[in-house]
Each structure stands twice: as C-alpha cells, then as structure tokens.
Amino acid sequence: MNPRKSCEICKTYYYAKNLEGNIFMASFPTNKERCKLWVKIVGNKALAELPLIQLKRKLICQNHFTPHDFNHNKNRLKRTSFPSQNLTRPPLDDTLLESFPKPFTKITENEMKLNQYKKKCEQIVQLVQHDHNYVSQDGGVLGHGN
Ligand SMILES: [Zn+2]
C-alpha cells in the first residue's frame, strides 16, 4: 500500500503517488519568515509548536492555492506563494508566533527513556561503588589490621 500524506488544512489524505499526478502538494517553506506566514495562515496552533525541520515535512494540497500561485509549468509554487483558498481556521495570533520557530530539540520519547536508563545505570554504579567501599574497608581491617 502506498503511504498516504494528509493536507494540513483540509486533512484530506492523498496517496503519495499523486504527488507526481493530479494532486499537487506543497511542503512548508524552509525559509523561516515564509514558513511563519504559512503557519499563521493555516491557523493550527500545534504547527506553531514544531521546529522548522518538522514543518518542512508537512504538506498543503493544491486546493488552497490559486492558479497564479504556480509557475507557468504548474509543477511548482512561486517562491512567494502562500495558501489563500479554502482555509478552515482563522489565522493564528502573532503572540503565538513570537518564539517561532521552536528550536529543534532531540528530546523525544525514546531519548527520555534512554535518559531514565542512564540514570538507573548511574545508580547501579553508585551502589556497586558503595558496596565496593564496604568490601575494601572490611578488607582493610582484615588484611592490614596489624
Ligand atoms: Zn487541502
């Protein structure tokens, strides 16, 4: 089965094969200021929380652009184009975009689990060292008492 991609505005799913077919899907701009504008227009707060690296994997389908937004081959958007048609939400308030873009942090769920695991390892190491100290102290008393 082909992987499906959904449009961030109308939430319609399209099969990836359509990327080269009838349905054009635009990824978010990599340019910070233009990406911010798109996020503002799309009006989804959750998108404002994503770092650029994740936003550029998000897609907007062709139904949100006018014919003038495309180049004359109709296979690319013009650099300055932004979604303007069939919008489903009001634009985001600028205060929500004050710290846009969010920095890319690698603290994912897996990373957190790894950190917990590391902490446990450190605790075990401390316990072992603690035990070892006991042994060597005892050993010291027994072995070098005289
Ligand atoms: Zn759409």
Automatic annotation (TrEMBL):
<keyword id="KW-0862">Zinc</keyword>
<keyword id="KW-0479">Metal-binding</keyword>
<dbReference type="InterPro" id="IPR006612">
    <property type="entry name" value="THAP_Znf"/>
</dbReference>
<feature type="domain" description="THAP-type">
    <location>
        <begin position="1"/>
        <end position="86"/>
    </location>
</feature>
<dbReference type="Pfam" id="PF05485">
    <property type="entry name" value="THAP"/>
</dbReference>
<keyword id="KW-0238">DNA-binding</keyword>
<protein>
    <recommendedName>
        <fullName>THAP-type domain-containing protein</fullName>
    </recommendedName>
</protein>
<dbReference type="InterPro" id="IPR038441">
    <property type="entry name" value="THAP_Znf_sf"/>
</dbReference>
<keyword id="KW-0863">Zinc-finger</keyword>
